[in-house]
Amino acid sequence: MSGDAFLAVEGLHAGYGDARVLHGVDLTVGRGEICAILGPNGAGKTTLLRALSGMIRVRGDVRLDGTGLARRSPDALARQGVAHVPEGRGTFMPLTVEENLRLGAFVRRGRGAVGADLDRVCAYFPVLRTRLKQVAGSLSGGEQQMLAIGRALMLRPRLLLLDEPSLGLAPLVTEELFRIVRAVNEEERTTVVVVEQNAHLALGVAQQAHVLESGRIVLSGSAERIRADEQVARSYLGYRV
């Protein structure tokens, strides 16, 4: 396992009951990088993020900045600075926008710091400031995704896991979300692992990428190299360069 990797995964196996989905996944992500996880439907991308956030049982080794994370609970991983925005957003619809955001800081202490982070998150997502007292269920799909990411940022995560952030959103909204993710990465040095159906867009913001197929990593490299490889694009990513 790479000694200088911020996130290091080795021999990771995971699944649901008797169904194995991940088969010995090895990957590394550098500190402060954006890493794209790509691959066809059913490849195990969502399962990988669930494994990294403690939502499912795993076998293998996962380390964040040298600390072992495998077999820890989701709340324990949140205390280690791991924030997961699941596919479908996971927003608490009956609660207000502000209540949802404050839930993101549930493992933190200090009202002053949490209040300051509300301002910080609203600076990234100005529309949320105008919606703080609205129930989350009244937001548009794009606003709900902004809320889900904003709630994760309230944790002040060291590792941010994003699962299909563009799902169901208009292209302009998706581009704005990825612009904000890149800004968070650059300004706060947050390490980001993103599973994304829009491979071209994901590779445009990532420094590196891993391609999953049938629960195994079949290709790893710089995002620039993977994006420029026409054979790779046709075989794994569903588009031509």
From TrEMBL:
PROSITE patterns: ABC_TRANSPORTER_1 (PS00211), ABC_TRANSPORTER_2 (PS50893). One of its GO terms (molecular function) is branched-chain amino acid transmembrane transporter activity. Keywords: Amino-acid transport, ATP-binding, Nucleotide-binding, Transport. Gene3D superfamilies: P-loop containing nucleotide triphosphate hydrolases. GO terms for biological process: L-amino acid transport. Residues 7-239 form the ABC transporter domain. CDD domains: ABC_TM1139_LivF_branched. Belongs to the ABC transporter superfamily. This is Branched-chain amino acid transport system ATP-binding protein. The lineage of its organism: Bacteria, Bacillati, Actinomycetota, Actinomycetes, Streptosporangiales.
